[in-house]
């Protein structure tokens, strides 16, 4: 990246398989030299929010995180910056504003006793597997808060994920620096007046499935699903902090505020 005064000397390039992202990747490769993700100091991601989430999950699975600068060549691009062409990338990286993101860690025990652990950047959700209403006991920090939630399910969202599935389930939008989590029911039937809660992000949440044989429930950490669950424990994975890079005028915290005034 000679001549661009880059903040990061070694960059990796990740892109979606869309035609727009492929063309942009070719354009960038013609101008800059990229290294493998293992060698990189930062990663450039081309695509939409799905591509960004895939990139972040790849790092989580590998146990090594690096700053990620996303360029939107997808649809929504809430987690991305605008793509203005290949020129000036080093300057944009030098001026980029870092935003810390803490994922959730989900520990699941199935009805058969198997255990699984996955991380979620957006949310962990419990969803009924059949037409039968799910019934879930909800505990926070070891105390049962709702003995039985009846409905389609329940989700726990990070601030980054609060504008995704959480928002569509009528959950609150959380500022990125709020240090809070959104606990949001999905199509609740009982308790009728409960619409969710906002919890400190140091909270430890447990979901226990009532009548699991009759009313099977799946647990999903972003896109990773475990079926026929019996119990789910969730807490913030503070050892897996990640960094997203944004152009100064497109910082994620401003987007979250702006989203609350969208009509």
Automatic annotation (TrEMBL):
It catalyses: NAD(+) + ATP = ADP + NADP(+) + H(+). The active site is at 49 (proton acceptor). Its EC number is 2.7.1.23. Its cofactor is a divalent metal cation. The keyword Nucleotide-binding applies. SUPFAM superfamilies: NAD kinase/diacylglycerol kinase-like. It comes from the Bacteria. GO terms for biological process: NAD+ metabolic process; NADP+ biosynthetic process. It is an enzyme of class 2 (transferase). One of its GO terms (molecular function) is NAD binding. It holds the Pfam family NAD_kinase_C. Keywords: ATP-binding, Cytoplasm, Kinase, NAD, NADP, Nucleotide-binding, Transferase. It is found in: Cytoplasm. The keyword Chloroplast does not apply. One of its GO terms (cellular component) is cytoplasm. Gene3D superfamilies: Probable inorganic polyphosphate/atp-NAD kinase, domain 1, Probable inorganic polyphosphate/atp-NAD kinase, domain 2. NAD(+) binds at residues 49-50, 122-123, 152, 160, 163-168. Involved in the regulation of the intracellular balance of NAD and NADP, and is a key enzyme in the biosynthesis of NADP. Catalyzes specifically the phosphorylation on 2'-hydroxyl of the adenosine moiety of NAD to yield NADP. Belongs to the NAD kinase family. This is NAD kinase. It comes from Aurantiacibacter zhengii. The gene is nadK.
């Amino acid at each position: 990246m000679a001549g661009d005064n880059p903040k990061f000397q070694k960059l990796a390039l990740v892109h979606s398989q869309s035609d727009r992202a492929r063309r942009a990747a070719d354009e960038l490769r013609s101008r800059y030299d990229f290294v493998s993700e293992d060698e990189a100091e930062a990663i450039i991601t081309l695509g939409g929010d799905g591509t960004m989430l895939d990139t972040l999950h790849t790092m989580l699975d590998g146990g090594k995180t690096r700053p990620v600068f996303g360029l939107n060549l997808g649809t929504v691009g809430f987690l991305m910056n605008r793509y203005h062409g290949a020129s000036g990338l080093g300057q944009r990286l030098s001026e980029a504003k870092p935003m810390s993101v803490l994922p959730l860690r989900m520990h699941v025990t199935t009805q058969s006793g198997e255990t699984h652990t996955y991380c979620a950047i957006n949310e962990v959700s419990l969803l009924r597997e059949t037409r039968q209403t799910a019934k879930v006991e909800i505990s926070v920090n070891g105390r049962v808060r709702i003995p039985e939630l009846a409905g389609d399910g329940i989700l726990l969202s990070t601030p980054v994920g609060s504008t995704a599935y959480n928002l569509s389930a009528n959950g609150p939008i959380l500022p990125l620096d709020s240090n809070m989590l959104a606990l949001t029911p999905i199509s609740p039937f009982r308790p009728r007046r409960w619409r969710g809660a906002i919890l400190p992000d140091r909270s430890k949440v447990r979901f226990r499935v009532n009548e699991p044989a009759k009313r099977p429930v799946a647990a999903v950490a972003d896109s990773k699903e475990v079926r026929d669950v019996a119990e789910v424990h969730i807490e913030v994975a503070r050892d897996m902090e990640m960094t997203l890079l944004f152009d100064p005028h497109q910082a994620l915290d401003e987007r979250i505020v702006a989203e609350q005034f969208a009509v």
